[in-house]
Design a protein that fits this description.
Oligomer: single chain
Distance between the termini: 70 Å
Structural class: alpha+beta
Number of domains: 2
Number of helices: 5
Number of strands: 16
Shape: elongated
Largest sheet: 10 strands, antiparallel
Length: 244
Amino acid sequence: MFPHVLRVARMRVRWIVWTLGIALLAMLALFPLRLAIAWSDLDEMGFAARQVGGTIWYGRLGDLQLRSQPIGTLEVTVDPAALLVGTINMRFGRIDGPEGPLTGNLVAGFSRGIKSTSGRIAATEIFAPVPVGALELKDVTVLFRDGQCSEASGQITPVITVPLPGVRFDAAMAGTVECDGERARVELTSPSGAERIDFHVQQTGQYRARMTIRSEDPIVRSTLAVFGFRPTAQGLSLSVDGRL
């Protein structure tokens, strides 16, 4: 009699576990993307979307912005395993935006930042008055944890939107992103070394961008002065501080 009761009890436990597992899978399959976004700290990172729809398996962020800088409309999927431990690991692909394709992962929670991201992002408002209109990213990863840069890699190339007389920028200015204590940093230098752009950002979103140009040509120097460049020990420099 007792073995029979034990078998029945085991069957009931298995049935309960199986039922709970199916319920959990069903809940995850229908888990709203809007709720996952609300639970995350993406808003603290400066991200905001006008429309959020779909589930974590397939959703859409419409008119996503980073502060006031438009990113575009993204199709996204969220890693459910990461969500269960309070982290957002969201794979995205841009489907609408003048800068073209943009793919990668957006991470929020214990770590913050982007992973394996490639494509062009507009940067006019971030860099102004430094004349960088966009950044070309190639497999860029920038992650912060506990206020420190924990991982940084990939290449960034600036896209100069306002030509500066006597100054030449090209694709050879691509630089590698690296960790520097609390900051993620990239240094972009032309082959001649006469043109240089330094950019660094912290977990809080605080950033600094500085463009430095070395030239002895009085016409170039006077023209750069009109744009706001000022003499420094490294050359004529124009810098901007802000928060993403």
